[in-house]
């Protein structure tokens, strides 16, 4: 790994967050094919990238304080989201083998559709389900933490979500998608770094890494500064930072 885990997830920049953003630093990670697809037409996405890339993702999760997904990903993939070393026994993840030291697992889930027996609700790591103020989340009582925030035009108010995470001491968020949630984060200017694993493969159809990011014409294109390009097993990892306008 050319850059340290801290550099990959922008930990050096978190100090600026602490100085007054009032929200965590957000790292958006996604795994895509050469034609930018993050899932096949039928919604399946496991696995686009190699075991080496997926193992590294556990290290990056461990480098942040919360792993965040949308309810669409929760329903499609039923992910565990805990940091695990079993994808590559060479990884030293001893710092997070204790569930008390695992990053938070966070699902952005307006209507509390996450079932209590979802993998993300197991005891492997702390879990926070973010729901709307009026959502019926009774089935989650006693299983996981629930944070209530207001609704927005689309889903939940992401500024309020991030303020809620920041208030819990979370300064760095690892956003793992999916594309609908990530599109809203990009549209709101709330992504600070993009970590993109690109597999030498093609799908030709299926979702791309971002949906509805509020970009409709070339003059609105979001340019990114390239921080690093590295090879991870058979894949390429790109680290970029959105260029802020103005
Ligand atoms: N290759 C990869 O790296 C990767 C990573 C993750 C997922 N995936 C794939 O992506 C697919 C799922 O993605 P998806 O786009 O359908 O779902 P998603 O982005 O995971 O979740 C979208 C849902 O999040 C909720 N949400 C709450 N607040 C929101 C807001 N402000 N903006 C947007 N959404 C908000 C909404 O549902 P509610 O109204 O119910 O809250 C929305 O429908 C699956 O096929 C999965 O396998 C691939």
How would you explain this protein's 3D organization?
With 246 residues, the chain is α/β, with parallel strands linked by helices. The chain has one domain: Dihydrofolate Reductase, subunit A, CATH 3.40.430. Helices cover 21% and strands 24% of the residues. It has 6 helices and 9 strands; from the N terminus they run H-H-E-H-E-H-E-E-E-H-E-H-E-E-E. It has helices at 5-8, 14-21, 51-63, 71-77, 158-167, 179-187, and strands at residues 25-33, 66-70, 104-108, 127-132, 145-149, 172-175, 193-199, 224-232, 235-242. Strands 5-4-3-2-6-1-7-9-8 form a 9-stranded mixed beta sheet, sandwiched between helices. Strand 2 (66-70), helix 4 and strand 3 (104-108) form a beta-alpha-beta unit. The chain is globular, with a radius of gyration of 17 Å. The two termini are 33 Å apart. Residues 30-31, 38-39, 43, 45, 48, 69-73, 76-77, 108-111, 113, 152, 154-156, 158, 176-181, 184, 207, 211 line the site of NADP nicotinamide-adenine-dinucleotide phosphate (NAP).
